[in-house]
Specification:
- The chain is mostly helical and 68 residues long.
- It is built from 2 helices and no strands.
- It has a domain of 25 residues.
- It is globular and about 45 Å long.
- The model has no long low-confidence stretch (mean pLDDT 89).
- It comes from Candidatus Flavonifractor intestinigallinarum.
- Pfam families: SASP.
- This is Alpha/beta-type small acid-soluble spore protein.
- Keywords: Sporulation.
């Protein structure tokens, strides 16, 4: 049976790239993330970072589809 922890990247070597992506998305929406624990963020701040990440992933996918 597979690991049920959804917080682990499928490709373990992608962890650093995902962290960089998260930091870039946080900077774009004005959230001050730090390395390590960020439990002091509000739900709104955390949601805006996640939302920005999803928005950028969808945009990248659409751009890739348009190029085919």
């Amino acid at each position: 049976m597979s690991n049920s922890n959804s917080n682990q990247p499928v490709v373990s070597s992608a962890r650093e790239a995902l962290n960089k992506f998260k930091m870039e998305a946080a900077a774009e929406v004005g959230v001050n993330l730090k390395q390590g624990y960020n439990g002091d963020l509000t739900s709104r701040e955390a949601g805006s970072v996640g939302g920005q990440m999803v928005k950028k992933m969808i945009q990248a996918y659409e751009n890739g589809m348009a190029g085919k």
